[in-house]
Amino acid sequence: MSKIYIDSTIYTTKPAGSRLPKEMAVYNLLEKLDIPYIRIDHDATASIEDCYDVEKLLGIAICKNLFLCNSRKTDFYLLMMPGNKKFKTKELSSQIQSSRLSFAPAVYMERYLDITPGSVSVMGLMNDTEHKVKLLIDEDILNEEYLGCHPCINTSSLKIMTKYIIDRFLPYTGHSPKYVKLTGK
User: Fold this and answer.
1) Which of 5, 24, 99, 148 is the 20 to 30 A CA-CA neighbour of 56?
2) pLDDT digits (tens, 9 = 90+) for 120-147
3) CB within 8 Å of 134: residues ≥ 6 apart
């Protein structure tokens, strides 16, 4: 596994300079909702394993975010779960009464969340104004004071209080989470 470069500077404000509009929109919304965050910048992270050093710097457990769909590609889900837990399709399918769940094609991720593979994040729900994506949250996420996520791009990571995501961010986006209990077994 190759190590990614991480700027160890801890930021509490949005970046200055040239960034993608979708990333800047996240910071602007967090400011609007009065949600404080800590940010670090790094090379692109392609997997949860790439985020381990980011976790250490931020003092959090990175949240695994999976973009899923049913076999007909008519129902879409964003699943938030602990990064160290294995995802078992059958376990989730039975809880949400949806058979044959799979990873959704990137075209839907971009269409509904304005996110590309590797950057999936709860922050993408701000772009789902038609509410095409249902949010699923593993109950273990609620046990964490903070969660880590990308600001719609995988070259930065944020540390945000979980309660602010649940009590401020999600109500603003109009997404009501369904809580699931995943064992990863």
Assistant:
1) 24
2) 999 999 999 999 999 999 999 999 999 9
3) 75, 76, 77, 78, 96, 175, 178
**Listed range (1-5, 77-81, 134-138, 166-170) with the worst mean pLDDT:** 1-5
**pLDDT confidence of residue 73:** 94
- The pair of structure tokens assigned to 69 is 């769909």
Domain count, the chain: 1
Give the whole-angstrom CA distance, residue 137 versus residue 160: 16
CATH code, domain with 56: 3.90.960.10
Tell me: pLDDT of 1 over 50: no
State the first-to-last Cα distance of the chain, in angstroms, to the nearest integer: 25
Residue 33 included in any domain: yes
DSSP state of 48: T
Strands 178-180 and 133-138: parallel
- C-beta atoms surrounding 103 within 10 Å: 14
2 alpha carbon, distance to own chain's centre: 23
How many CB atoms lie under 10 A from the CB of residue 108?
15
Domain that holds residue 41: 6-180
Domain-embedded: residue 185: no
